[in-house]
């Protein structure tokens, strides 16, 4: 593993910690039934049926689990484990695609935007960009080895 890939993995772990804090906060507030201090639009999103999740776990709870997996995978990748790198790459792209779906729901179904949800989506997009950069650098590195 190159030092560039190691740095990318560490930045990804830090970014995922930000996402975990965001989704963890939303999960705790949802489970407590507490009011989240934000604008009316934010409340509309967080009280919609799409925020309820599955089996008593709010949607933000699944996000927190996903961020925790990315943190662990990124730390493993930074330590040189290829499986950690692969898990990070896969999770980053899945999370970014799911964020596109959630933004679509906010825009065209709920007709409101939640700042916390958009922040989480931004983190997911940044993770996907980091994964893409790592993937491109990895391919370029492999191509140079074959020359």
Radius of gyration: 17 Å
Q: Provide the structure class.
A: mainly alpha
Distance between the termini: 19 Å
Q: How much helical structure, as a percent, in the residues? A: over 70%
Strand content: under 5%
**What is the number of independent domains?**
1
Please tell me the overall pLDDT: 91
Number of helices: 5
The helix/strand order is: HHHHH
Unreliable stretches, pLDDT < 50, 5 or more residues? Answer: none
Indicate the CATH topology: de novo design (two linked rop proteins)
Number of strands: 0
Instruction: Give the overall shape.
Output: elongated
What is the CATH architecture annotation? Up-down Bundle
- CATH C-level class is Mainly Alpha
Biggest sheet statistics = none
Q: Name the CATH superfamily assignment.
A: VKOR domain
């Amino acid at each position: 593993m190159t030092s560039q890939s190691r740095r990318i993995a560490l930045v990804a772990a830090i970014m995922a910690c930000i996402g975990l804090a965001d989704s963890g906060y939303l999960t705790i507030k949802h489970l407590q039934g507490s009011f989240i201090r934000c604008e009316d639009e934010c409340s509309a999103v967080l009280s919609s049926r799409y925020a309820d999740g599955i089996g008593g776990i709010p949607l933000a709870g699944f996000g927190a689990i996903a961020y925790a997996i990315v943190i662990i995978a990124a730390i493993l990748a930074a330590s040189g484990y290829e499986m950690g790198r692969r898990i990070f790459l896969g999770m980053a792209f899945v999370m970014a695609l799911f964020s596109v779906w959630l933004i679509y729901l906010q825009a065209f179904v709920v007709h409101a935007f939640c700042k916390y949800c958009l922040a989480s989506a931004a983190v997911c997009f940044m993770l996907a960009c980091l994964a893409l950069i790592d993937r491109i650098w990895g391919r370029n590195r492999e191509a140079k080895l074959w020359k």
